[in-house]
Structure formats: structure tokens, C-alpha cells
Amino acid sequence: MELICKVQNYEWGKKGLESKVAQLQKSASSSFPIDESLPYAELWMGTHVNAPSVVKETNEQLSELISRQPAVLGEEVLRQFQELPFLFKVLSVNKALSIQAHPSKSHAKELHSLYPNIYKDPNHKPEMAIALTPFEALCGFRPLSEIKKFLESIPELQEIVGNDALSRDCQLIQCAFRAVLTCPKKTITKLIDSLLQRFSESDKTQRAYLHADLVQRLHSQFPYDNGVLMVYFLNYLKLHPSEAIFLGANEPHAYLSGDCIECMACSDNVVRAGLTPKLVDVDTLCSMLIYTGAPPTEKLFAPTREDEFSVIFRPPVPDFAVIKISVPAAENSYSIITRSSASILLIISGKAQYNNGTVVPGTVLFLPSDEMITFTNLEGELLIYQAIANV
Ligand SMILES: [Zn+2]
Q1: Which residues pair with 247 in a beta bridge?
Q2: Is there a contact between 138 and 254 (Cβ–Cβ < 8 Å)?
Q3: Architecture of domain 304-388
């Protein structure tokens, strides 16, 4: 079943046809109007009430179809979740998204019962991002030695954190991280100005070491925001297309720029600490994070090969897994692997024929569990991402 999916025009999105979201929508439906001055931030594929997908042929909401015919979910998905447990998205990021982490299931329950207006559901929100274009993100704490080196060599950080914290190794990341995020506006303004001055007096090597370009960019997007200095605490990653990161519970992260596929459990629970006009909850964030540093290479999430054309990104949660299917132009046809879960497929590139019609970039299909599709290549390399429940 082909789906019609909704676009979210959040202000941080890429504008007009620069945006992968807009490109895919335009390709799938030539009548989709593109306003070059409008941001096209997210494409939502699934049953979430904020932007529910609709079955193209019948105009029925996918959620209604599922409640009418729950068997389409697959037996195990139905038993564990009684609904489609994931939300599948495309993101086109022009401006940094907030520094955030997502609570564990038990913590989400607690937060939701204490602050139902802020944490609106009791579910966890593990998420995975797979790059479609070069994609920048901050992800997880840097190794302790790296953070320590920044703290010792950048006087502005030293002033915030204090020598006292620096002398302690065991709680250094916690103390320094909290000190930066809670630093009063007046002090942070003075210190960021001083840091920018330092950049202007630095040579190329020094600027690269200080991540001057990135700090300046974040400062231009969020002037004098405490979160700008998180560059010295969190790993900076630049994903190539097809590379992925998985954000489990309590892992600090921020998406900075680029287009990606994103899949997550159905939840809105985000604890934010900076680079955002939204509510920040530094206390909750600081109390929940995983403070173990690790190098950026350890943050990449590797897929497992399933057959010649299919690899699967299978995170350690039951809510979702994502499959990347790439069929070279020379290959005539490919039958995708049958799954015991309902799935959503998004065509990224290529053109192919399948049982009911033709798919082009931007086509979104809903496939009931245990059903199969054979794609026959018509044009170019076929690239598809498929989201399933990981049961
Ligand atoms: Zn997140």
C-alpha cells in the first residue's frame, strides 16, 4: 500500500529543494508545491498522531487500517506492542538541533508521572540516524583524556570549571559538564567573546585543534548559548552516506547538519540542555547521562549483511530495526526478505516496478507482515530503506 506522508516545516530544516525531504516529496508527487523560502525539516512515516500517514488509495489513516486489521502488524508485534512501535523519518538539518538525551523506559515512566506536561508519554525513545548526505553530529562523551586536555589548554573553560574539578579524575566529566551548562549568562557571554578573540589570533593548526569553525558556526546559530561549548565535551562525528549512529538511553547527542534517515520508538521524550529555544532541563539531563568517554569510532553503529543486496541495522531494542536495500542498476530484479513484522519502505533513489505499480524516489510503502515484494529495476541503482519492528 502506498502511503502519503506529512512534512514538518520546523525552522531548523533545510530550505526549498536543498532539503532531501522536499526533494523526495517533489519526486513522489509532482504537484507537491515547493516554496524555496520554507524549511522542509522532517518527513514522518507512521501512525504518530502529530502527522499520521494516510493510505493513498483509500485516504484512510494507516493507524485506522491497523486497528481494523491488527493482524497486518505480525503476531509478535501485536503481542508486544498492539501498534506500530516505531516512527520512521527523513531529516534535513540546516541548523543544529538541541543537545539532548532520551530517558530509559523506567525513567520515562517516572518523568511522565512527575511532569506530564513536559514528558508527555511514558515510553523510552531510542533512535537511530543513518546518513543520506554527509551528516554532522555530536555524540557521546569524548574520551576523558581529550576532555581533560581541552580543559587544561583552553583558559575560558578552565575559568568555568575551576582548578578544583580538574584535579579530580573520577568525577571530572560530570562536574565540568554541569559547570558549563549552569554557567551564568553574563560569564558565558564574556568567556565566549574571549574564546572568539583567541580564535582570531590563532594559526590554522591551533584553530583546527580548537574546532574554531564549528564553535563559530554554533555561536552564529545560538549566540552565547552554553551549549556551544559542548564541542569540547562530546565527540564530533561526520558520517558518510550509509553510516549510522544509534542513540540508546542517556546518550548525549545533537544533530548539526545534513540529511538522514531516522527511526525511533514512538515517543516524544527529549531532555534538552542547550542549543535550543525550547525548555532546557539541565538537572534531569545531568543526573541521567552516561559519563563514560569513548572515541568517535566506537559511536558508529555497524550493520549486518543479510544477503547480496540487503544489510540490517539491528539495535538492542525491540522497537525497531532498519534495513538498507541497494540493488545495482545491472541487476534485473530483487525480492526483499520476508519479515515477521509490518514494515515501511522508503525509496531514496532509482525507479522500479513492483506488484502494484512503479516506485520512484520518495515513494513510501506500507507492507503487512509476512508479505513479499519483488522489485524489477527500471532505471539506475535502487536504494531503499525499510523500517521494521525488531521482534
Ligand atoms: Zn535525539
Answers
A1: 127
A2: yes
A3: Sandwich (2.60)
Same topology between domain 3-139+237-277 and domain 144-231: no
User: What is the whole-number distance in angstroms between the Cα of residue 298 and the centre of ligand 1?
Assistant: 18
C-alpha to C-alpha distances, 352 to 293, 301, 357, nearest whole angstrom: 45, 29, 9
To the question of domain 3-139+237-277 being in CATH 2.60.120.10, the answer is yes
pLDDT for 247-277, tens place per residue? 999 999 999 999 999 999 988 889 998 888 8
* Residues 24 and 5 sit within 8 Å (Cβ to Cβ): no
Q: Looking at domain 144-231, which CATH architecture does it have?
A: Orthogonal Bundle (1.10)
Distances (CA, A) of 183 to 186, 191, 230, 344, 370: 8, 10, 13, 44, 54
In the reported structure, the alpha carbon of residue 276 is separated from the centroid of ligand 1 by a whole-number distance in angstroms of 13
Residue type, 195: L
C-alpha cell at 169: 579524575
If residue 287 lies in a helix (H) or strand (E), which one and from where to where?
helix 282-288
Cα–Cα distances (Å) from 370 to 314, 322, 326, 342, in that order, read 19, 16, 21, 8
Q: Is 219 annotated as a binding residue?
A: no
Q: Give me ligand 1 centre to Cα 71, in Å.
A: 31
pTM: 0.95
Spatial distance between the Cα atoms of 303 and 310, rounded to a whole number of angstroms:
10
Q: Is 142 a catalytic residue?
A: no
d(CA 89, CA 46): 9
**Angle, CA 13 vertex, CA 7 and CA 17 arms, to 5°:** 75
Selected catalytic residue, list 142, 178, 217, 272: 272
Residue spans of the domains in the chain: they are 3-139+237-277, 144-231, 304-388
- 8 C-alpha vs ligand 1 centroid, how far in Å? 16
Dihedral pair phi/psi, residue 100, rounded to 5°:
-150, 170
- By CB neighbour count within 10 A (0-12 exposed, 13-18 middle, 19+ buried), where does 184 fall? exposed
Report, as an integer, the average pLDDT of 18-35. Answer: 94
